Amino acid sequence: MEEERTERAEWREKPTPETAGALAEAGYGLLAAPLARRGVATPAEADAFLAPHRRDLHDPFLLHGMEEAVERLRRACRDSGTVAVVGDYDVDGVTACALLTAVLRALGAEVVPILPNRLTEGYGFQVLQVEKAHRAGASLIVTVDCGTTSADAVLGAIDRGIDVIVTDHHVAGSDFPSQAIQINPLQDHCGYPFRHLCGAGLAFKLAQGVLRRSGREEPLAALLRIACLGTIADVVPLVGENRVIAALGLRALSEARSPGLRALMRVARIEGAVSSTEVAFRLGPRINAAGRLADAGLALRLLLTRDSAEAARLAGKLDALNRSRQAEERRVVKQAAERFADRDPLPGILVAWSPEWHRGVVGIAAGRLAREFHRPVILLGVDGDTGTGSGRSIPHLDLHSFVAGFRHRTTRFGGHPQAIGLSVAVSELPDLRNAMEETAEWPPGVLVRRREYELDLSAEQIGSDLYAELARLEPHGEGNRRPLIRLGPLERVGPLREFGEDHLKLRARAVGGEASEAGRPVWLLGWGWRERAGRLDGRFEALGALEWDSYQGGPVVRLEDARPIGNDRMPERRMSA
Ligand SMILES: [Mn+2]
């Protein structure tokens, strides 16, 4: 957990939609409010949420452009044409590219996968990938996870007699050439019932469409175990169809037989069932490390190889790159944080650049600092006379539309409300930073760190039963975080133990009211909490999420925050269960 550089957080119960009442009456108990907060309104929807099923995958042909795209792809497969699949260098772009490449090859097409190099080429579908496709003899380019703002490249392909299908989930451009087919649930005339598919999710839908029209059975497990990697790693909301992709994909992942996935899970030390946390923190970063520090093609080859010796070699390479990435990221975070720490008052947006920063890690470092300082952060690595980098935002603050106001001062710009990429001339950077700082006035309350808890429980309620009940909300991710529990009043039982570099663990039990002394103690775990040990003295209350700890062999509360309770402020017990 990151150190917090801003004032203490405000705690409040997450607002509960009225639909929670009906769910509680229908017997969903403790899960009623969390389900309602995740957009579930009826018992039927609750059942679908709690038991994701393949029938809840939407018809791919509801996507605008799907019919034409499938028609064109089938022609390429029939004629044994060469198809270039142009992806991206992150997990989403790599898995999308691998999935579509494998399916089109199985259908008889000659496929040339092309991934941009983050360091030498930068993000997105560009004319230079068109040239590569052209040299490879492609008559069709399919983009995955990119292309929606690449009018130049699309027109460049059409000029060379290459047809183009763009599949993308980034904010759609207004000048998309009408000669190309576009599949993007965010484009105006797309009536698809779910807007949040990622690049790999869209590649999966396109694969479904082309397999279905070709009269082939859809190898759902094989497709979903790849699509779920991009879906979880790209932090799209894990609700609706994404939840189905993630849940079914994770189940399929634990049974993966492909040499690449097996080798990757081996170096990531994952055995048995695979959780979304393991994809987000173990598999995803290793796939990403290739594109960050070397070439995303290494990860693509790993996913596509049928040779276990090659898979072991590539997985070892990704593992080593991931370790370098961690070290590099720590360095950038430390240097940038030192610069920001001097600023008083702290501006509403933090912008920094350095020729010493690796462009492959500035985005991930910006994300970490945005959480620490609780405001948007933009970091750029400088190479020659250009700064290239990424910005990351905080909840309820649309960084994309903010930076769009400065688009004329960038040489490249794109992204999402929460994450942007940009390139800026170095000579322009100081003025741009000043202008951004002056303009960065956010609505009141946006910079207040809020912790919204979902359940208000006493220590006696923590146990295996509660863990099993809450586990029904898995897989967790964006839009479906592990519910935060408010727990207390508590007092420590026995000593505060330190472990690892700066972690804490302790046992605590309920105090106050009638129940004093009676409570069975619960384990609390504070990752990176050594400096916050003072918050765990005397009587305190805590916010945390319930996790299974294989070391303890039981549920533990992973601490998010804690605060002391004075004797005069002992709260009435609030029961939400
Ligand atoms: Mn993506």
Plain-language structure description:
- The protein is α/β, with parallel strands linked by helices and 577 residues long.
- It is 38% helix and 20% strand.
- The chain has 18 helices and 18 strands.
- The chain has helices at residues 19-28, 32-37, 43-50, 66-78, 91-106, 127-135, 151-159, 199-213, 220-233, 240-253, 259-267, 276-293, 297-304, 308-341, 362-373, 399-404, 429-439, 464-471, and strands at 10-13, 82-86, 110-114, 140-144, 163-167, 181-183, 350-354, 377-383, 386-392, 412-415, 419-425, 450-453, 455-457, 485-499, 503-510, 522-526, 539-549, 554-564.
- A hairpin with a 3-residue loop joins strand 10 and strand 11.
- The longest helix is centred in the middle third of the chain and has 34 residues, at 308-341.
- It is globular and about 75 Å long.
- Mean pLDDT is 93; it is low at 573-577.
- Manganese (II) ion (MN) binds at residues 92, 145, 169, 198-199, 234.
Beta-strand share of residues: 15-25%
* Strand count: 18
Cα shape: globular
Q: How is the largest sheet built, in terms of strand order?
A: 3-2-4-5-6
What can be said about the biggest beta sheet?
5 strands, parallel
Structural class: alpha/beta
Span between termini = 28 Å
**How large, in whole angstroms, is the Cα Rg?**
25 Å
pLDDT < 50 runs, ≥5 residues: 573-577
Mean pLDDT level: 93
Number of helices: 18
Bound molecule kinds, no repeats: manganese (II) ion
Helix content: 25-40%
